[in-house]
Amino acid sequence: KHTIHKTIDEYIEHCKRAMRESTYKYKILTFQGGKKRKPGTRTIKEIVPDAPLQTINKDHLKKIRAYANERGLKTSSANRLCNEFQAFAAWATEEDYFAADPIQHIKGLPVEDADPKLISDEQFTELLNNVPMWLREIIWVDWLIGVRLSNVVGLRYDQIHWEEEGNEYIEFAPSEMKKGKNTRIDLQDLPELVDWFKIRRLAHPEDTYVWMSPSYKDGFGHFSLSYVGRRFSRTAKELGLDVTFHSIRHTFATRWAESGMDLHSLSKLLAHKDMNSTKRYVHVEDVNLQRIAKKKVARIRKVPALSVVNSGK
User: Fold this and answer.
1) Percent above pLDDT 70 for the chain
2) Would you call 296 exposed, middle or buried from its count of C-beta atoms within 10 A (0-12, 13-18, 19+)?
């Protein structure tokens, strides 16, 4: 009695109840489409033809990969689309529409791990000087706290706590975090940021979000995540920089790893869902450990002087 498309609609309704707003909106765009979809793109409901639900198999994932290849999408993007369809099938299995998940065993295509794109201090300054004031503020705040785009853009005043001096922090509820756990960002060593929040709050006492979008006529709502990301990327491209907004977070994490923070602590700081996301910074930690070891060796054992020898002598 259930078809693929009908069950997808049920899945989207489930996402509306169970997931954070930004995730729910992404699910709608991916499965059903909407006004904000890019021209020429197809949704999963358009890629996968409607049929009885029980007919779902690996061929449906092949159709999604073929579409991604036709569009010239990266392998990671193709995997992401397939993962969304697999997440739908996993939910349908939990709802007892399947006796066993028919596509859970199918792995994604191998993707070569790319080093995170980092932003230097000079590039950061250049970006700040070439974006509008509202975006400059968002970039500056995220440079200091290193959260995801959705968390910084959707930051509310009720998440920022400065009542107790020496115990200032930003708190995100589990429903607001990709990891699904309560997360605190300590602001004790960032007095300039705390003062900035206080001053801005005094200037905008009625606002819910730190950055209210002027496009909301009722005065309630923050900037669109996709709009912020596009404005950042467009400016970066104009400046000849191969970075995205997420590069701010990569830079933040890399600097903590360089400062000597172990990967387990770094994973907690970044609120990663699992350690695999943090392991991309393992090379940074390794280099740091080597430097620490060399310093210890140099202190314990005297390093002999090396004479300069001319070639051939």
Assistant:
1) 77
2) exposed
Sign of CA dihedral 89, 93, 98, 101: positive
Name the residue among 76, 80, 85 with its Cα closest to residue 57.
Answer: 85
**Which structure tokens are listed for 134?**
């509202």
> What is d(CA 141, CA 147) in angstroms, rounded to the nearest whole number?
9
DSSP strand pairing (183-186 vs 169-172): antiparallel
Core vs surface per residue 156-167: b (16+ CB within 10 A) or e: eeebbebeeeee
Q: Residue 308 in 3-state DSSP?
A: coil
What six digits make up the tokens of 167? Answer: 């115990």
Q: For the chain, what's the residue count?
A: 313
Rounded CA separation 62/109 (Å): 11
Any idea what DSSP says for residue 212? Answer: B
10 touches 32 (CB < 8 A): no
Q: Which one, of 109, 100, 106, 66, lies nearest residue 86 by Cα?
A: 106
User: Angle, nearest 10°, between helix axes 133-145 and 225-238?
Assistant: 100
- Order of strands across the sheet with 169-172? 160-161, 169-172, 183-186
What pLDDT is attached to residue 59? 96
Closest to 264 (Cα-Cα) out of 251, 282, 249 = 282
Q: Residue 45, class by beta-carbon neighbours within 10 Å (0-12 exposed, 13-18 middle, 19+ buried)?
A: middle
Percent of the chain beyond pLDDT 90? 52
